[in-house]
Specification:
Elements: H1 19-39, H2 45-59, H3 73-121, E1 133-139, E2 144-147, E3 152-161, E4 165-170, E5 173-174, E6 184-189, E7 192-197, E8 206-214, E9 217-228, E10 254-257, E11 264-267, E12 272-281, E13 290-295, E14 298-299, E15 307-311, E16 314-319, E17 328-336, E18 339-350, E19 364-369, E20 375-381, E21 393-400, E22 407-408, E23 418-422, E24 429-438, E25 441-442, E26 452-453, H4 458-461, E27 463-468, E28 472-477, H5 478-481, E29 492-499, E30 504-509, E31 520-527, E32 534-535, E33 546-549, E34 557-566, E35 569-570, E36 580-581, E37 595-601, E38 604-609, E39 620-627, E40 634-635, E41 645-648, E42 656-665, E43 668-669, E44 679-680, E45 692-699, E46 704-709, E47 721-728, E48 735-736, E49 746-749, E50 757-766, E51 769-770, E52 780-781, E53 794-799, E54 805-811, E55 821-830, E56 837-838, E57 848-852, E58 859-868, E59 871-875, E60 882-883, E61 894-897, E62 904-909, E63 919-923, E64 926-927, E65 934-939, E66 942-947, E67 956-962, E68 969-974, H6 976-990, E69 996-1004, E70 1010-1016, E71 1024-1029, E72 1032-1034, E73 1040-1045, E74 1050-1055, ...
Helix pairs in contact: 1-3, 2-3
């Protein structure tokens, strides 16, 4: 859009005039003028000369006036004429030259504009570059049809910010150029994306799509490529031309609609399909009919919510996710050769189940208006509230496109159906939804709105387009034309565009000029007339010229003004708005006027009403209905309907309804209109069809008696009149026979002439009017009947037509002949045959006959002949042909008794029913009419004949026919036996007994009260009853409480103090309407004693519970870590209450004190075993009393606990692990807990193993093991451990054979040898201290006991030098057991480190002693750091012998191994014991011996028989 025209370079030029074009036009016009002058014919020679001179003069650039010469009158006239014409030509040339100069100037200006624009384009920034935008296809893909082996290029142009990523797809599969090198080429040049397919083949025919994606969304475009194969060699082909495809347009087809979709009903969230079948000629699979679908006259398009399909002889519309927005009138329009074929039907969509009982339905038609950069106005339509509480407001939610995270926009419900949403992000796309609120809760959310993008609509108005040479569109922003503007101008036209009690929306026009810097607004308000302005958008930066204000006070008038602000500062304030007051201007519409309901069909009613007097922007109407006599209203429509007439569908035939209407606008629903008059649902009336079968029944020469058959269609109302016309068979003029209506179908026509032939026709009439006349009868001759035989029977009809039988009914002849009619013969013949067969050998006296033996599917005709004493009379007219075949779904009459009233009835459910059908009952095939003995009611497809007072007079054959159908009928014979059975059942129903679920019973309640109760299946509010105890009525009073509950059917009496005096018989007598019953309970003897003991116990229990007590007595549980818990629950505690545990009267003090205030107490028993058997007791008490609970853990209880432990242990058991020891091979199973009391069985080759010297069985708290001592080949095979918990057996196996056994046996031998070496190696058993302190000149004796087998060698060292025996130092070794080092008169030089090395062939030990010598008088020196203080050894005159420390106990023979990893180890033949660090063989003596550990260790090559102590068990430690 162009802006104001100010300087020349801002002008918007819609067209250009090129200079060469203007010159050409001037030359053409000049030549035309010369041709006109030359074409003139003149008789004078001077004319040619003047013309030539004039031409030469005009052709020269400068010319002179010719010399004056005299001319004659004719020459002067011709000269003046030519001069005048030439002058006009010169004027035209001058005008064209002027136009050429103007065009040249315009072109120069255009060139200057081009130059200016090109220089500006290099430095300007497009406005849209600042705004995030989801992808959008400016130029979409288009379909292509090409020949085979030719290339095709698909291209498109897409916009978006940031720049979208584009991907190509073929049939939904990504196109990969690398998958077929040279086949596809994808390009992107100057924003144009293209896909080039080289050398197309037929398989390239597909739907190609391109998808553009950025962080704000995704857009796609698709097109079809069709590849055609060229004609064969014998066919003509124009190569190089675009193929011409001959198509048959869909609108040229002939279409006939068959099965059409009907009025449909759906529920929110469900799916529904509307299908219409059709016949298409020609039926081409590739050319389906052109179909359009409409909802409320609005064309529908395919989407995720609307799926359309046509083909296969059907048009289908599928709504996969229904909402109330989908309700409306759906129209299918098909374009055909002859025009259009249409069909319409209404779709009703009801509310889904509410989110909370009583919550309203969901709003609908959510749309966004007035879209700006950070503001959107959301509007919707309110739901219908019929029986729910009124709607108090609405919540509006939003979510960004592509996200499922909904954000609530308003903190408090808005009361009108509009809400301004602000605070949106520029360029982001949003969806909105609405939820209604009432006092019961919040509704389900509405369907989300269409996607809207927050963009400033005013920005497009600030752009103008300049066209250059018709090729380029140059877009210029107003910012570029305003010059350098820093501060913006002030906004204008500040006003309130939306005024409601909930909010006010301010609107204004953006400033001009506004400048190039980003712009925002500041809004201020003040009370009208005060001038005290206050900013209201302190925390919000407004970018759009809209702002909703919520916090205005009621009754106050406000003024508003707005500032424009950018980075350079603020504008001046705008002019204040007009005073604005927060108020609902219009409110809801007034109530609609008079409501009228009228008959429409058997399931619908036509409702119309007067529009409200005050519409107030009316949205539509809601129509409600209710069944007569009911207080509950139901919604007839769920989406506001715009017109003042509506067809309510889905009603029940013959039911009576009342309707009301409410008007709807943005403020909600109006008051209800007045209710319509009650109306029964029946079909609209129509005139009856024509009668038929006119027959002559009698004639006396002066009158003719005729009869006819009833119309096949009565028009929904009883036929109450007939009109007969007659004419002479030789004339065409019809005359009326009767002016007054005839009610019977037999009429005597007078005023006839004997010997004349007459024709008759009949018309039927009902409440709707007179129907069409019948076809004229055959000519009938008026002549007197004088025969003695009877005349013909008439009005033959059929009922109960089945596959092999039917019933024919007729009426008696009018002419009886010379005597009375005594019977009838019935003849039959196949249709088209003249051979009749008499069905009854003897004449029947009644006027009906059941015909049997028919062939299914065969068509028959019948006739009836009357008989009297004189013979057989004339045959009746032939009946209508009847086919022996039952109607599909035919049902028979059912006899029964009404369960509520006890009425005996006959009932028929019709398999077929038209809108005009009625049920006609007969007894013995005679119409019953208004018989007082029966009552006929009809509802829907069912008709019921109820007997008012049935007895033997009602026996007989009853039949019913359904009019306006293809012969729906049935019959039932009521016999005496069947009637008696139904009378008994009827008596039981009419004189009922109150059914009881439970007879009189008792239960003992708390405090020792006893409750006597019974429960009936159903009780009414008018029930009465009484309790009788020992033949005396008991009433509610002191000591007795009597009550009942209708909802549950319970009647009860509570005795407060139950004693021996209450022994006896209890009876309850009940009267509920007509029903009666009684129930008794005998409470005497042992039964009474049991009840009395229970009552006394409960009374004591109540007293016990007044103080601290056990609410649950002691019981046990087993935790996952196999700890047994003795637990109980306590109640009525206080801080002073004490709690104690005892076992066998010995108090147990738990590690954690018991907290009685928690209500639960527990005593853990870890590592449960047989030692934990006994009687446990818990005692609690305070000043209010004491309570005790005991629990005996023995016998079955103990076994149950062990089984519970076994269940947990068995489930946690690891696979069997092989462990070698010096004694043999051990199999171990780790589990959460093990005790020998568990039922654990070891098996070898399915044979149970008993513990013995060979096979030892044992375990620890963490595992069970079985050791094979001194194994041999006999012990090879499968080993199994079975852990039984009494219900399930947990099994683990290990295969000890093959290589596994070989490796294990070798490991066993190695460990056995290592253990033997460890046992017999040399070692110091005891006697040596670590530190010795001695005074100078004393004697020191270091003596120890050594052991080894064989006897070890002993060597003493000082400071790592071997000590030699001499006078000062003497070394002794007595008996191979005792070794001594004696130092006489020690000196300070004797201080140092002494050591002894004891060794034999299996190993040895190295022990060190520190000796310190001090002088007399000196302080005894302290031991060195890291060494313990040692007492000074006792010194004799010759030696000082220190007291040896206690010798460590020798290691156990077979220590229990401990696994090395916390997880369950896999079976392995390797021992988990790490190798030792010492050498296996003794080392020879040397002057500097190797320092040894105080504890000799086996050599490195020998593994220890037991793992180290610090290694963890594979099962988690017990808590």
């Amino acid at each position: 859009m162009a802006s104001k025209v100010i300087p020349w370079y801002k002008k918007k030029h819609t067209g250009e005039v090129k200079t060469d074009y203007a010159c050409c036009q001037c030359c053409v016009k000049y030549q035309q003028q010369l041709q006109q002058i030359q074409s003139r014919k003149s008789s004078s020679k001077l004319v040619s000369e003047v013309q030539a001179k004039s031409t030469e003069a005009m052709a020269e650039l400068f010319y002179t006036i010719p010399v004056f010469r005299h001319r004659c009158a004719s020459e002067i006239e011709e000269y003046q004429r030519v001069a005048t014409h030439v002058g006009k030509g010169l004027a035209v040339i001058q005008e064209e030259l002027h136009r050429m100069r103007i065009a040249t100037k315009v072109q120069v200006e255009s060139l200057q504009i081009k130059s200016e624009v090109r220089s500006m384009m290099t430095r300007r920034l497009d406005l849209l570059d600042y705004i995030p935008k989801m992808p959008d296809f400016v130029l979409a893909l288009r379909p292509h049809t090409v020949w085979e082996k030719t290339p095709v290029k698909l291209f498109c142009t897409v916009q978006g910010n940031p720049r979208p990523v584009v991907k190509w797809y073929k049939g939904g599969v990504p196109v990969d150029p690398l998958s077929a090198p040279g086949k596809y080429r994808i390009e992107n040049k100057y924003g144009v994306h293209s896909l080039i397919i080289s050398r197309c083949v037929v398989s390239d025919t597909a739907e190609y799509s391109v998808m553009a994606t950025n962080q704000h969304g995704t857009a796609s475009s698709m097109a079809t490529v069709t590849v055609k194969r060229p004609p064969g060699p014998g066919e003509s082909c124009l190569l190089g031309l675009v193929p011409h495809l001959t198509e048959i347009h869909a609108s040229k087809l002939e279409v006939a609609l068959l099965d059409r979709f009907r009025v449909s009903f759906g529920v929110e969230g469900h799916s529904i399909s509307l299908v219409c079948t059709m016949v298409v000629v020609p039926d081409l699979p590739n050319v389906p009919p052109y179909v359009q679908w409409y909802r409320d006259d609005k064309l529908l398009k395919s989407s995720k919510l609307v799926e359309m399909a046509v083909g296969g002889g059907a048009a289908r519309l599928t709504l996969p996710h229904l909402a109330k927005d989908d309700e409306g009138l759906y129209t299918l329009r098909i374009f055909t050769k002859d025009g259009t074929a249409e069909h319409s039907a209404y779709l009703f969509v009801s509310d889904a189940a509410p989110s909370a009982p009583g919550a309203p339905g969901a709003p609908m038609s959510v749309k966004a208006y007035d879209i700006n950069s950070d503001y959107v106005l959301v509007a919707w339509k309110p739901p219908n509230t019929v029986n729910e509480a009124p709607i108090t407001g609405y919540f509006v939610d939003r979510c960004e496109d592509g996200s499922d995270a909904w954000v609530q926009c308003n903190d408090s419900p808005v009361k009108v159906c509009k809400y301004p949403v602000h605070g949106l992000s520029v360029g982001h796309s949003y969806h909105f939804r609405v939820r209604a609120v009432n006092s019961a809760g919040i509704s389900r959310p509405s369907r989300k709105s269409d996607k809207v993008t927050a963009l400033d609509a005013a920005e497009s108005e600030r752009l103008q387009v300049i066209k250059i040479e018709g090729k380029y569109d140059i877009v210029i922003k107003d910012d570029d034309l305003e010059g350098y503007v820093t501060l913006p101008a002030e906004p204008t036209n500040v006003h309130a565009s939306e005024i409601f009690k909930s909010y006010v929306v301010l609107s204004w026009n953006p400033p001009s000029p506004r400048g190039r810097a980003p712009l925002w607004y500041i809004v201020e308000k003040c009370l009208a007339g005060t001038g005290a302005w206050q900013r209201i958008n302190t925390a919000v930066k407004l970018h759009s010229p809209r702002y909703p204000v919520f916090d205005l006070q009621d009754g106050q008038k406000y003024q508003f003004r707005v500032y424009s602000v950018n980075m350079y500062g603020s504008s001046e304030a705008s002019a204040p708005s007009e005073p604005v007051q927060k108020v609902d201007e219009d409110g809801v519409p007034s109530a609609p006027g008079h409501v009228v309901a009228s008959r429409n069909t058997k399931s619908s009613v036509f409702v119309q009403w007067e529009a409200p007097k005050h519409l107030n922007n009316l949205m539509g109407y809601y129509i409600d209905g209710r069944v007569a006599g009911s207080k509950e209203w139901f919604a007839c429509n769920h989406k506001p309907f715009k017109h003042t007439r509506f067809v309510v569908h889905g009603l029940v035939q013959s039911e009576t309804y009342t309707f009301r209407v409410q008007a709807v606008n943005v403020f909600g629903l109006s008051e209800e209109s007045q209710e319509s008059s009650p109306i029964a649902v029946e079909s609209a009336l129509a005139t009856p069809s024509s009668p038929y079968g006119i027959a002559l029944l009698s004639c006396d020469g002066s009158s003719m008696t005729i009869a006819w058959k009833s119309p096949k269609r009565c028009g929904g109302s009883k036929v109450n009149a007939y009109y007969v016309d007659k004419r002479n068979a030789d004339t065409l003029l019809w005359k009326e026979v009767n002016l007054a209506p005839i009610t019977e179908r037999v009429y005597i026509v007078d005023n006839v002439t004997e010997g004349t032939f007459y024709e008759f026709k009949v018309q039927a009439a009902n409440m709707a009017g007179v129907g069409v006349p019948s076809a004229p009868s055959v000519p009938m001759k008026c002549e007197a009947w004088t025969m003695d035989e009877p005349g013909p029977a008439y009005d033959l009809s059929f009922s109960e037509v089945r596959a092999h039988s039917l019933v024919i009914v007729w009426k008696a002849p009018v002419y009886t002949g010379a005597s009375a009619v005594t019977g009838y013969f019935v003849d039959k013949a196949k249709k088209g045959s003249t051979e009749f067969v008499t069905l009854n050998q003897e004449a029947v006296s009644h006027r009906y006959l059941q015909v049997t033996g028919l062939e299914e599917g065969e068509t028959y005709v019948f006739r009836v002949r009357a008989v009297n004493a004189n013979g057989v009379g004339k045959a009746s007219q032939l009946s209508e042909p009847v086919c022996a075949r039952a109607l599909p779904g035919t049902k028979e009459i059912v006899a029964g008794v009404d369960e509520e009233t006890g009425d005996i009835f006959l009932s028929l459910e019709a398999c077929e029913l038209s809108e005009m059908s009625t049920f006609v009952w007969s007894k013995n095939y005679k119409a019953m009419g208004d018989c007082p003995r029966v009552q006929v009611t009809s509802k829907g497809r069912t008709s019921r004949l109820t007997f008012t007072n049935p007895d033997k007079d009602d026996l007989g054959r009853y039949s019913v026919m359904v009019t306006d159908t293809e012969g729906v009928s049935s019959s039932h014979t009521l016999t005496e036996d069947a009637l008696n059975t139904m009378l008994e059942l009827s008596h039981a129903i009419r004189h009922p007994v109150v059914p009881l679920k439970h007879g009189l019973n008792y239960e003992v309640l708390e405090k020792g009260h006893v409750r006597f109760w019974l429960q009936a299946v159903k009780l009414s509010s008018s029930v009465s009853y009484r309790f009788i105890v020992n033949d005396k009525e008991v009433t509610s009073g002191e000591g007795h409480k009597i009550s009942h509950d209708v909802a549950t059917g319970i009647i009860q009496m509570t005795v407060d103090h139950f004693t021996r005096a209450n022994e006896g018989t209890y009876t309850v007598q009940i009267n509920d309407g007509k029903a009666k019953t009684q129930s008794s309970l005998v409470l005497v003897g042992d039964v009474f004693k049991v009840a009395l003991r229970e009552a006394e116990f409960q009374r004591k229990e109540h007293i016990r519970k007044q103080g601290p007590h056990f609410s649950e007595y002691l019981y046990y549980t087993v935790t996952e870590d196999c700890t047994v818990l003795l637990a109980c629950k306590v109640a009525n505690m206080k801080k002073e209450t004490t709690f104690h545990w005892y076992k066998e009267e010995d108090e147990i003090v738990p590690e954690t004190p018991t907290n009685v205030m928690s209500g639960a107490c527990a005593l853990p028993i870890p590592l449960f075993s047989r030692k934990d058997q006994g009687v446990y007791k818990a005692v609690l008490g305070d000043d209010r009393g004491k309570d005790t609970s005991t629990f005996d853990i023995s016998g079955q209880v103990f076994d149950d606990i062990i089984n519970s432990l076994a269940h947990i242990a068995g489930a946690s058991a690891s696979d069997l692990v092989l462990q070698c020891t010096p004694e043999g091979i051990r199999l171990q199973c780790y589990m959460s807990y093990y005790t020998e009391e568990m039922k654990t069985v070891w098996k070898h080759k399915e044979t149970k193993i008993a513990s013995s010297e060979k096979m030892r069985i044992g375990g620890t708290a963490e595992m069970a093991w079985m050791q094979i001592c001194d194994p041999s080949d006999k012990e090879k095979g499968h080993y199994t451990i079975e852990i039984s918990d009494g219900v399930k057996t947990h099994t683990r196996t290990f295969d000890l054979s093959g290589q596994a056994y070989t490796d294990a046996y070798e490991e066993y031998l190695r460990l056995k040898a290592a253990a033997f070496a460890e046992k017999n190696r040399g070692r110091v058993i005891g006697g040596l201290p670590d530190v010795v302190t001695i005074m100078e000149n004393k004697s020191l004796s270091l003596t120890c006991t050594v052991w080894g087998e064989p006897t070890p060698e002993v060597t003493w060292f000082k400071n790592e030098q071997e000590v030699a025996s001499n006078e000062h130092t003497r070394v002794t070794f007595d008996g191979g057991k005792f070794s001594s080092l004696l130092i006489n008169k020690v000196t300070p030089e004797d201080s140092g480190k002494y050591s002894i090395n004891v060794r034999n062939k299996y190993g040895g030990e190295f022990v060190e002693i520190t000796v310190s010598v001090y002088k007399h008088g000196e302080q005894i020196p302290e031991p060195k750091l890291g060494q313990p203080k040692m007492a000074t050894p006792t010194v004799t005159s010759t030696a000082a012998t220190p007291v040896p420390p206690k010798s460590p106990a020798p290691p156990s023979k077979t220590p229990t191994p401990v696994p090395s990893k916390p997880q369950t180890p896999a079976p392995s033949v390797k021992s988990p014991t790490p190798a030792s660090s010492a050498a296996a063989t003794p080392v020879p003596k040397s002057p500097t011996p190797t320092r040894k550990s105080p504890t000799p260790t086996p050599p490195r090559s020998v593994k220890s028989p037991t793992p180290p102590r610090f290694m963890k068990s594979p099962t988690p430690p017990r808590k």
